[in-house]
Amino acid sequence: MKRLALLFLAACRHEWPEETEPAVRPDEYGPPEPVMLPTIAAICNKAPCSGELAHVTAWYDHKNRIRGYTHDGDPQRCATTSSFDRDGNAVRALKNGLVRGGSNACRP
User: Fold this and answer.
1) Looking at residue 54, what DSSP letter applies?
2) 18: pLDDT confidence band, cut at 50, 70 and 90?
3) Which residue in 56, 49, 99, 54 sits closest to 77, CA to CA?
4) Which of 15, 39, 76, 86 is 20 to 30 A from 1, alpha carbon to alpha carbon?
5) pTM for this one?
């Protein structure tokens, strides 16, 4: 009888899966960094084709930090898009893999 019980326990032994890394939670790095309104105003003043219908969009990395901005010009003046770094300095282009954030209108 003991032999039968040991055989039964050995057959029912459960193998647990290996531990895996926990998934990254979307809020792990906190809420998205807020846009700096002085930076938005500086971009609106520097960018070509800025006007009442122009707007600035923030772009975030995977840690919810702003990595750059794009300025979409006023279509009544000209429709160009310019890129800026997080400090408002003009750059050639933003890195790939960024997430689009909110948009702010340029007000004269």
Assistant:
1) -
2) low
3) 49
4) 15
5) 0.71
Please name which of 52, 59, 56 lies closest in space to residue 43, comparing C-alpha atoms. Answer: 56
Q: With contact defined as beta carbons under 8 Å apart, do 71 and 50 qualify?
A: yes
Q: Strand order of the sheet with strand 55-60? A: 90-91, 81-85, 66-72, 55-60, 99-105
Q: How many secondary structure helices (H) and strands (E) does the chain include? A: 2, 5
Structure tokens that stand for 60 in this block: 């975030």
Residue count of the chain: 108
pLDDT in tens, 54-99: 999 999 998 899 999 999 999 988 888 999 999 999 999 999 999 9
